Amino acid sequence: MDLFQVSIYLLNSTAVIYGAACLFYFFYIWSVDKGREKFLGEASKWLVYVAFTGHTLGLAMRWYQGGFARPPWTNLYESLIAFAWGASLIQVFVISRWKVSIVGAFSVPLIATLMTMGFLTSSKEVEPLIPALQSGWLKIHVSFAILAYAAFTMSACLSVLYLVRRGISFSKIAAMICWISVFNMSIAGGRDAYKQGGFFMARTVTRAMPDGSVKEFKDTTQDYEGGPMVTRMEKVPMASVPFWLSLFAFLVAGFALWFKRNRNIKIDAKFDNDEISEEMAFRRGDDLTPVGRAALRTSVGAFILFLATTVYGIHISEAITLRSNPYLLFLMIMSCFFVGTFAMIHFRYRSFLGKIPSAARLNELSYVGILFGFPFQTLLLITGAIWAYFAWGRSWGWDPKETWALITWLLYLIYLHGKLLMRWKGPTLSVVAIIGFVILCFAFLGVNLVLSGLHSYGAA
Amino acid sequence: MLESFGKYIDDAWDSLASVKLTIVIFAMLLLLSIPGTVVMQYNISTIDPGIQYNFDFWNFGDKLQLFTAYHSFWYVGLIVLLSLNLIACSVNRWPQMWKYANAKAVFWSPEIFARQDEKLFHQWNSKLSGEDFRKKADAYFKSKRIRSIVLKDEPRDFQLFWQAGRWSRIANYVVHTSLLIVFSGAIISSLWGFEGATNIPEGESISTFTVFKEGKHSGLRKVTGGAITERQLGHKLWARNFNVDFYKNFPGRPKSFESDLEVVDRDGKSLQRKKIVVNDPLNFLDSGVYIYQASYGRLGDFQIDLRILDKKNPSAGREYFSTNLESPFTSQQWGVELIALRATPDIQNLGPGVQFQEVKADQLIGKPFWVLQNYPQHDFLDRKSPYTIFLDNVDEKFYTGLQIGYDPGAPIYWFGAFGMIVGTMWALFITHRKYHLYYERGVVYFAGANHRIPIGFEKTVKNMAEEMKAWG
User: Which residues from chain A sit within 8 angstroms of residue B421, using beta carbons?
Assistant: First the structure.
């Protein structure tokens, strides 16, 4: 076994350990027994440490194989692994120094999702660098990205915990999840649906290779090399109908949940500061009206329908693998994890409150995360501009990746101005931090996998 | 009448100087940045959006300037509004900021101490006498390099004050001024700068290029009779040579590519010469116009140097030819006309190969045959003919893709960017911290105050209090 295989093996097993840590966190939230709770808490924490160690080793090995000039973040596989590593690094800091190990209940599923996607990526080779990437800026620019995105991610996780702690209205959470789903679904599938008339498109790329042979790619992550190409798109029968149906269902359910909630129970208006008592627990769906309840069921139905469509699409067509729409894959795995976590919290809310820090502390930590990430995001934009200036002769070209990094930056600018000048309160800030995370996901993965541009570690 | 007009102006100024407006502008900018990433933008290298989209959408998008989203009236308008808002906010807040930064410390009575945030306020009894406490405090300040001010000075009743990070109040002015500097750099670039591109087949030269962004004052001259986007370069740019290296185990993945460029004037005199690679451009006649190596492409042609040898006596009777694809050449010795049909730099990992065909008076004779540069015996043994072809050189012809850019605002916006980074760090991580220490007949009051959200400040104050408590 050579070093390459060892590192792949190591990273794959790391993914498994993160998955195990996820399960431990589930059980940790579920447990009410004090002794078992303590054991599960410690075990999940140590699993995270072990996974992080393996992750670091695996990544270091890859860097060693590629040589110093080639850092391990130059293609899709490596980007996934490297950004997951960044999130893991900050997470280990939060768990060990800030003693908020419960944050893992949200961040570990995320890291596990990234690692799983990495595992499913077909091309894991240590490819040498193309000339545009042969620059010292590659190391600096992407390191900043990793740190900024990791800090923002952790901040969003802490914000979710904060909202749970503050007992945000159940209807509001459900409505927001619905709208986030609409946003992500329209981006992941909407373009194909609009342009090609079908949500699930089987994309086969036939390419003349430089050696004269002709190759067929059924995986979008590999088709950047070679000569002239022909792309064949085929519709998957019946896949569009459930797509539009579930998108529409999410949209309607979101509005129903938000506007038809029982306003007599003003859960988060009752307390204006972060010092709240245990009784302020969000009453499981107390503010749901019959309409809201129906909407909630509709959205669950829509989710199942969407999941089923995806599985059906993969099953029916050979050319579709989940890899042909990796952003969708990312969303799928992540939503499964998060729906699971929220369900756990929902059923064990009272004991869960005992496992998380005070709202004031969570609010502060979430702010510190953004305080840490924001300068890196600024540096990310500026170093990117400097690199582009030397490589392409323009510092800012409104390439989608650049623009989405700017959008992310603008969002955190809103956060900081809201916090520092407008004195926004915790709940508002948390919602902004979570929206920031959604935008971040798109800026990191969505842009490469859905839109096209110069930062092509993803699809062409 | 005039009064109400004045009031109207005041109201307008107030709403322009509000942070609420800033946040609304940020949100608008955020949302309006999205369409430009989804809808195709006008660019020389991509297909015209008019072809990409159906007519109705194109018509609609064109009216809204959707295909030039980041230079559209709504986007530029928002940025202008943001700048005005920023200036108004800065002007409005300056006096207050200046006052706070320069505010003289005032004496705090125990009641004022008691009103402070309880996490930032510590009170304890000291066994030390006033003089001893004062001595300890002076030594402590010296070790911590604190310069304290005395607000009340009596042997058994004294108050000390010190502060740090006073000028961090000005940091946001640094950030915001820097942002305006970045904007002004960008404006200068867009008025006087230009961006363009050209492709030069290797060995050939050009004197014009295609421009896709051009400022009003860029001073570029149009080409009479040329395309609308064609501009004069001023001198001839000659791509003397172009080389591309590929990675061995990764077909089609370029390792490096370089162009040997030479600037030549009308008389053919060389003015400048440089080999450029990606990330290392040519400063065109040191004028600030940079020529960047951006891409390359295949011309679909090959330069083929070959010999025709006698099979029986390969060392005698050689004929040398230098040819391209699909241009016939005649061997006088053997009386055959040959044509190179296809060529490849690598035929199934066997190295360069060329496919030839014998012709006579536009008639094909026999079957086409491959000749390999690294395996000449293949042709020697395989084909029944008195002569054999020996390849000396098979060189694929490329064009070099160059970007040409002039960005006079660059030094200005880089300066602004630097200021933004420094200012951001300063503004976010350093705050104006004030400390009051009051010794009143054996009772010590110690409190800190901070002008912003005090992350970690409570701990600092607590640690200081603990250290002072340890004196006794």
Answer: 375, 378-379, 382
Phi, psi (5° rounding) for residue A386? -65, -45
Q: Which residues of B touch A421 (CB under 8 A)?
A: 19
Whole-angstrom distance, CA of residue A87 vs CA of residue A109? 11
| A393–B403 C-beta distance less than 8 A | yes
A294 Cβ contact partners less than 8 Å away, ≥ 6 residues apart: A256
Residues B49 and B40 sit within 8 Å (Cβ to Cβ): yes
CB-based contacts of B284-290 (< 8 A; 24+ apart in sequence): B284/B404, B285/B235, B288/B406, B288/B408, B289/B404, B289/B405, B289/B406, B290/A393, B290/B404, B290/B405, B290/B406, B290/B407
Interface touch A375/B424, C-beta < 8 Å: yes
The confidence band for A342, taking pLDDT boundaries of 50, 70 and 90, is confident
Residue B351, both tokens: 């190295």
Test B37 with A404 for CB contact under 8 angstroms: yes
Distance CA B283, CA B406 (A): 10
DSSP H or E segment with residue A254: helix A240-259
CB neighbour list of residue B99: distance below 8 Å, 6 or more residues apart: none
Nearest to B333 by CA among B309, B364, B305, B362: B309
Residue pair A395/B403 in contact (Cβ under 8 Å)? The answer is no
pLDDT at A151 over 90: yes
SS3 A230: strand
The pLDDT score that the predictor gives to residue B41 is 78
- CA B142 to chain CA centroid, nearest Å: 47
Tokens of A208: 């003349």
Residue given tokens 């908020």 in the structure block: A100
pLDDT recorded at residue A457: 42
Query: Phi/psi zone of residue B203: left (φ > 0), alpha (ψ -120 to 50 degrees), beta?
Result: left
Query: Is residue A232 helix, strand or coil?
Result: strand
**What number of other Cβ atoms are within 10 A of residue B249's Cβ?**
9
What value does the mean pLDDT of chain B take? 87
Contacts made by residues A394-398, CB under 8 angstroms, sequence distance 24+: A394/B195, A394/B403, A394/B405, A394/B407, A395/B407, A395/B410, A395/B413, A396/B186, A398/B36, A398/B41, A398/B69, A398/B70
Helix (H) or strand (E) holding B144: helix B130-144
Q: Do A209 and B251 touch (CB under 8 A)?
A: yes
The reported pLDDT for the residue numbered A460 is 27
Any residues with CB less than 8 A from the CB of A119 and at least 6 apart, and which? A12, A15
pLDDT by residue (tens digit) across A405-436?
A: 999 999 999 999 999 889 898 888 999 999 99
Whether B343 has a pLDDT exceeding 60, the answer reads yes
The pair of three-digit structure tokens given for residue B45, joined into one six-digit string: 């290298």
Spatial contact of B232 and B223, defined as CB atoms under 8 Å apart:
yes
Whether pTM > 0.90 for this model: the answer is no
Report the alpha-carbon distance of residue B90 to residue A367 in Å, rounded.
Answer: 25
B346 vs A contacts (CB less than 8 Å) = 210-211
Contact criterion met (CB below 8 Å) for B168 and B426: yes
Assess B107–A contact: CB distance below 8 Å, yes or no: no
Compare all CA atoms of chain B with the CA of A369 and give the residue at the minimum distance.
Answer: B455
Q: Do A410 and B26 touch (CB under 8 A)?
A: yes
**Mean pLDDT in chain A?**
81
Size of interface A-B (CB pairs under 8 A): 139
Please report the ipTM that was assigned to this predicted complex. Answer: 0.85
Residues 6+ apart with CB under 8 A from B281: A390, A393, B290, B291, B292, B293
Residue B368: predicted pLDDT: 86
Kind and range of the H or E run holding A45: helix A34-66
Cα distance between residue A432 and residue A426, in whole Å: 10
Are B292 and A391 within 8 A, CB to CB?
Answer: yes
